[in-house]
Design a protein that fits this description.
Shape: flat
Strand content: 25-35%
Number of helices: 5
Number of strands: 12
Helix content: 10-25%
Strand order of the largest sheet: 1-2-3-4
Distance between the termini: 33 Å
Length: 252
C-alpha cells in the first residue's frame, strides 16, 4: 500500500513497529516477480482445468488460504451455496434451511437429531431430511464442529468476564490456529497467547497482564465467537527463576 503523503501518525507508528525498522517506499517494489502463466499451469495441473486467472491471484496473495479452500471444496463441495448464517452457525433441531441451487432448484434441509458417539467407530450419526427424504451421515468426531455434543446439543463457550483483566476473551469470531501457552506457565505482559484467523486475517491475542496461566480454554481448530474466554490469567509477581531466554524480562 505504501506510505501516505504525510506519513503515519506518531506514536501509533512506533507502537505498531515495536522496534522494527520501517519499510521505505512501496513494499511491492521489493517483492520477487511472479510468473502468472507458470502459476496458472501449476494450479491447473494440481486442481484441474477449471482454475482461472482469478484463482491464480488468490493463490499468489494467500497461498495457504487458497489451498485450504480447494481441499474443502473437494471434500465438502461448494459450501458457497449455503446462507451465511447457516455456514457460520450450526443448524438447530427442527429448523428448516433453504439452499438455492442452480437453475432455480431449492433444497429444504431440516436437522432431526445427532446421536451419541458409536461404540464401534466413535463417529456420530447425523439425521436430517432433504426435501422430506430422511438421510443419515456419519461424522468423524475429530472433524465435527463444537456444536455436535449429543442429540441436538449445542456447546456454549464460557465468556470472558468484562472488567476482569485476567479473563482474556477473543476480540472477534474466527478459528483458533495456534495456542502458544499452557496451564501453569508464567506469561509476561504482551506475550502471545492465542493466534486466531478470520476472513483471511490473523489476529494475535496477547496477555493484558503478567501472571500465571490458570486455564487454557481452547485448542487449535476450535471455532470461537467474539468475547469467548480463551485464557484465564492470575496476576502474580515474576517467579524466580523465570524460564525465559537469558536477559529477557517482562515488560513494565
Amino acid at each position: 500500500m505504501g506510505v501516505p503523503p504525510n506519513g503515519f501518525p506518531e506514536p501509533l507508528t512506533t507502537i505498531i513497529r515495536k522496534g522494527k525498522k520501517a519499510v521505505e517506499g512501496r513494499p511491492g517494489e521489493k517483492l520477487e516477480p511472479v510468473d502468472f502463466d507458470e502459476t496458472l499451469k501449476k494450479l491447473r495441473g494440481k486442481y484441474g482445468d477449471d482454475i482461472k486467472m482469478a484463482d491464480v491471484m488468490s493463490y499468489v496473495l494467500y497461498p495457504e488460504v487458497f489451498e485450504a479452500y480447494r481441499e474443502g471444496l473437494e471434500k465438502y463441495g461448494d459450501v458457497g451455496l449455503l446462507p451465511t448464517l447457516a455456514f457460520l452457525r450450526p443448524l438447530e433441531p427442527d429448523r428448516e434451511l433453504q439452499v438455492r441451487l442452480k437453475h432455480g432448484r431449492v433444497v429444504y434441509i431440516t436437522l432431526v437429531a445427532i446421536s451419541e458417539p458409536l461404540s464401534s467407530s466413535g463417529k456420530r450419526e447425523v439425521y436430517f431430511t432433504a426435501n422430506g427424504n430422511t438421510q443419515i451421515v456419519l461424522v468423524d468426531p475429530k472433524e465435527e464442529p463444537q456444536s455436535l455434543s449429543g442429540v441436538g446439543g449445542v456447546v456454549k463457550r464460557e465468556k470472558a468476564v468484562q472488567g476482569e483483566v485476567g479473563s482474556v476473551g477473543t476480540p472477534m469470531s474466527g478459528s483458533v490456529v495456534e495456542v502458544r501457552v499452557q496451564e501453569g506457565q508464567y506469561a509476561c505482559l504482551n506475550d502471545p497467547l492465542v493466534l486466531l484467523t478470520a476472513m483471511k486475517m490473523e489476529t494475535l491475542v496477547s496477555a493484558p497482564i503478567s501472571g500465571l496461566i490458570e486455564r487454557v480454554c481452547v485448542i487449535p481448530g476450535d471455532s470461537v465467537n467474539s468475547g469467548d474466554l480463551v485464557v484465564q490469567i492470575k496476576e502474580t509477581e515474576i517467579p524466580v527463576p523465570l524460564s525465559r531466554p537469558a536477559g529477557v524480562l517482562c515488560e513494565d
